[in-house]
Amino acid sequence: MGSYLSKDKRGGIIASRIEHQDVVGVLISFELLKEDSKCYEILTNEEETKPNEWTIMPEGNDDLEVIFGKARLYVQVKSGPVSLRNLKEILLKWANDKKSKEKHNVRCYFLLNALQGFSNFLSEFEHKLNELKNSKDVYLPSEYEESKRIFCEKYELSEFYELIDLLWIDTRQFMKDESTTFAVFSQIVRETYDIRDFGNKMLKDIFSSLTEKFAYARRNRLPIKKKEYLQCFHAIINNKELILPNDFTLLTGYEFKDTGYHKNQEIQRKFKELYTNVKRVYRKIRNRWVKAYWRSALVTALFGGWPQCAECGHPLMSNLSGLFGIACPDCGYQPYATLYLGCSCGNYLIIKKQPALSHEEFVEAVLEYSHKHSTVCDRCGKNMIDDYWKYRLLFLPFPEPMEVYSSNVIKQFTKRGLFLRGLILFALVIFICYELFIRG
Length: 440
Prior knowledge:
By secondary structure, the protein is of the alpha+beta class. It is built from 14 helices and eleven strands. A six-stranded mixed β-sheet has the order 5-4-3-2-1-6. A three-stranded antiparallel β-sheet has the order 10-9-11. Strands 7-8 form a two-stranded antiparallel ribbon. Helix 3 (84-102) links the parallel strand 3 and strand 4 (107-114). The chain is elongated and about 105 Å long. 22% of the residues are buried.
């Protein structure tokens, strides 16, 4: 493909700049999936609840606009060297955007992707800006403000004094050529989705599909939401799965050769091993639930007091009064479910409570857990995220934490209420015995 910066490439600089914009959008999208990335750090405010969703609007209020709860990230992509005049024009626009959004209590941040860096006068601008920001938590506020004033005067930006704390610069030349762009993309994807490995062929397919999605959204002025982005990404993975042995080989126990279909003893052994592991994990989780809930199940079975079904109003008394999972016997409604990841030794991790029923949600839940917690089994020392982790995912109708839920069920019965209900039950048993064995 040659150089992305060539004026002769695909219609010249304008076409090249638009192509750059789509690629930057793809890279920013992946960085937003990582809570330790620069983009996520920029948009996160510790005083607010972190939103689960973000939306990217190509050609919105800027080349790219990231909408993240009450925050906005304005992104400009510059394919040529940025001069002082260019920088002032960009900052003037952003100052007006900030003033406009402040009326709606929206926080604004600004990211300039200068793909060929800055002109001579601004050659050290990014370095000096980062140096200034890094000093903010070190020096006194008055000292920091003085340093910021000197910085603005040096670069003739005093009129944009208030924007400096909200400004980020990225001068990575990842659009230098095709191999550099793909290398940066591959690194970001592998860092973000470290729960599995990707081959270069799949990564190229992913890169091509996602840039096309951004190009289509830009041409039609359509927003790209996190959920839609992940669906597109996971669809590519599902259609081009490269984990060996693949699903069909593992499930059937056969492999295809030139002469036909042959049984693979190793694959059959692995399938039986996985099946045994999953059964062992399920029994352990179920036994923990029975141990935690049997008193509550007994009390509700004897005295009633089951929660009501949100769908039909029937008592949630299925599965032996909830002993094998809380559910409605009439319509099948289940109020609770938890996603577990099992280990080959029978141990397990609680991945997420109440996950949505989609492939994307399950994968994202495992990914989020692996970034925040260790996935190494504390019993056998193996990493549960291996080539077969997806076969050891369990989605079970048990609430977590189990012990808390069980104690809450018991607490709804007062001692006086239990005594009176027990007395009535005892009297009923005596009456039945009298009718059957004495009077009869």
